[in-house]
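Q&A log
Question type: sequence-to-structure
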Amino acid sequence: MSAAASETCANSNEPVMPPTVGAVVLTQGKRPAELAAAVKSILDQHGVTLDLVIVGNGWDPVELVGGLPDRVKSHALPENLGIPAGRNAGVPLVNGEYLLFLDDDALLASSDFLAVSIGLLESNPAIGLIQPQVIDQSGAPNPRRWIPRIKKGSPSHSSAVFSVWEGALVARRSVFDQVGGWGDEYFYAHEGIELAWRFWDAGAIVWYAGDLIANHPAIDPRRHDDYYRLNARNRVWLARRNLPAALIPLYVGSWTAIQIVRSRRDASARAAWFAGWREGWSEDPGARRAISWRTVATMTRFGRPPII
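Response status: OK
Response body:
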């Protein structure tokens, strides 16, 4: 219905109401220019009714230079709770049948991004979560990890996927609520894999839309402190929280072997990764909610069995 938001129903004189979208932008306030551009790209959307909140992770968005734009809410978290918990904190503050999550250094590349996304969701009720193609506006090479497939192929090719890049996503709110949202415990790294797995387990397809574009700078994630440690810890937690018991050692074992190969010439990275690996087994990962064997079979049928 999003494409016909201003038209009337064929069998009624009632106007078709535009779809409602609750948008959550998470920020620590360190990129004010990028944040302003991200917010503008949301407010420029047409064909939808928006409810937008900026969540300050350890920062108060009212401190934004020039003030907050009209129609924008703010929510200050007293400390940095991490990326997934910060996003979750914004969800109850916005209304909408659909949810948009956008990083503060990302952009929606067109003013019909949301209308097209929701048109896809409404035309295919089986889809629950959409990740767009991500492009660096500067012309820098786009990281292959932004295409969440083992066989990457063309970035413009759309397909079902079993992980997502978290910086720009559109979701059905009903399914997001059903699966419990983002995993707060992760803080950073792999929360998009868990969200995708849980959407599939709820019976909803996760879709990579190669014809939808979001922009984001091509920045090496290793710039983050503790990248390797959290990457390893959360990989173990992902298995412990989500996989049937028989698959946990297979999944963790395969990724351990992969990391050994990847870090064979980087002793520092390898040491940090294995420190996180040990934390993954020794620390509490939070509530366990194992996906069904039916979901495992679905993933396997699509070429992504949860052992890698």
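Response note: The CA atoms of residues 6 and 12 lie 13 Å apart.
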